[in-house]
Amino acid sequence: MKSSRIVYPVSAFAIPLTVRVIPEVLAWPWPIGFDTIFSYVPWIMKGYLLNIDLMNMLKQARLFPFLALATNMLIKDPILTVKVLGPILYALLGLSVYLFARRVLIWPPRKSFFLVLICSIYFVSLRISWEMYRQMLGTIFLFLTLTAYHASKPKALPLTIIFSVLTAFSHEIAVVILIAILLADGVRCLLKRDLEKLSSALFSLLPVFTIFTYMLYDPRTHSIRLPLEGLRGSWFTLAQFISGFLIYCYAFLLPLAPYGALKLKNKFVHYWAASTLLIGLLWPLLYPQASPPLWFRWIIFMVYPMSIYFTEGIYQVLAFNKDAPRPVKFSAIILIAFIALSAGFYLVAPPEKAFPYFSDYNPYKAYIQSSMLQSTIPISDIDDVMASLDWITENSDGGCVLILHEAFYPWSLLRDGVGCKVILVRERNLTKPIRETFAEKLTKISEKLADNGETIYTIWWVKGKGWYNVPSLPRSFRRLTSYGDIAVYTYTS
Question: Fewest 10 Å CB contacts: which of 11, 12, 297, 474?
């Protein structure tokens, strides 16, 4: 018993750390993830927080950039900093899940550790760890807040408030879920006339709600503005697309998660699951004209209650229900083995050799990438992109324009300059089933610039190899040179 008090918590930290280190080692020396190279590395390079005054700093969840800058002061290498922070955050998240399971769910050590294992290897959790460092940080503090709040002791209230404030400054989705849980629990206490617990809920809710309200406050209009967006398309298309994504994400957990949800008595987990379903699924379908931004991230954030439900379902079938038919128990074991197998592929297989479920049968690659072993582009293409940038620097006359898709743009920042004016083209409307492609945007921009007599370059994959729904560029772009699967093109309309 005494050894389990040490072994299981240490393992809850060490296993996620080891799992998350694997793709970082295989991708060395480059970082994996999109936001890591597109946002986090530039933040560190430019000293993002140093150029913002205190009041504006509090307007957004900026705790992670502060953490990244502080870490880089020790490491002094922005790329290495993000490569180190990813595994560490994932390990701390595993430990916070373990503490939540032990102290809030009141689960035994082995069952709590199994939950950490599922959270560590399920592909949706791995996708979060791939780039969503801010969300991981917010989730860590969310679990710690709920753990402290559950203690229901006066001494735990200051800790609850501190963790809740850190949640608010870490990530927007995490703080909304926290507010929803505290609000729902406050209503429950009010209905049951549990005044002692009600006061704890109100004191915990007030600071975080105030901070979040300030973040939404628009000083120009003196009003609270929700960052809503409209979704285009028929209701049937949206319903099929959004509900399909929910099923795609949790297909491996759904066989046992509903059973576990029925057996689980913890209200926090139910509040969490209900909040993500309401905001990420029902709201976009009931009112698509003004839905929450990035609805798919809310569905992704449901992985934690779904993992808890799945763990409860597995234990009910394998440990508590001795009368369960052998085929049911055997199927449960096979399901666990399949989750582990798919995790192995997701961790170590390059995108071109990804597990079929994540590649050939994945219509949601913009939300759930085919493999951990990639950045904005395949790891194997990064050196070729850098060589292409160097070629442009050496061969441009200085009066040129380099139009770069957001997948290639951050790599240009690693060079002091490329000899051309650089134009960034973002992927827009990611939440919509149908959207304009990079090729269409590139052609429009190039046509306008060509009228001014400017030389136009871009970097893309060779014919048939392109990502982001653009296998090849239009014929109006002529290839000048290539390195591996990456080529430099010029506009020749």
Answer: 474
276: its two tokens: 């993500």
Region for 286 from its dihedrals, namely left if φ exceeds 0, alpha if ψ lies in -120 to 50, beta otherwise: alpha
pLDDT (tens digit per residue) in 156-197: 889 999 999 999 999 999 999 999 999 999 998 888 888 778
- The per-residue DSSP string of 235-251 comes to HHHHHHHHHHHHHHHHT
Q: 362 and 248 in contact (C-beta within 8 Å)? A: yes
Question: What is the pTM assigned to this prediction?
Answer: 0.92
Is 132:352 a contact under the CB 8 Å cutoff? no
Q: Identify the H or E element spanning 481.
A: strand 477-483
316 within 8 A of 266, measured Cβ to Cβ: no
- Token reading at 444: 């429009």
Q: Are 446 and 456 in contact (CB under 8 A)?
A: yes
225 φ, ψ (degrees, to nearest 5): -120, 120
Taking only the tens place, the pLDDT of each residue in 277-328 is 999 999 999 988 888 888 999 999 999 999 999 999 999 888 766 666 778 7
Strands across the sheet containing 486-491: 420-425, 400-405, 455-461, 486-491, 477-483
Q: What is the C-alpha separation between 473 and 466, in angstroms, rounded?
A: 8
Q: Is 252 within 8 Å of 122 (Cβ atoms)?
A: yes
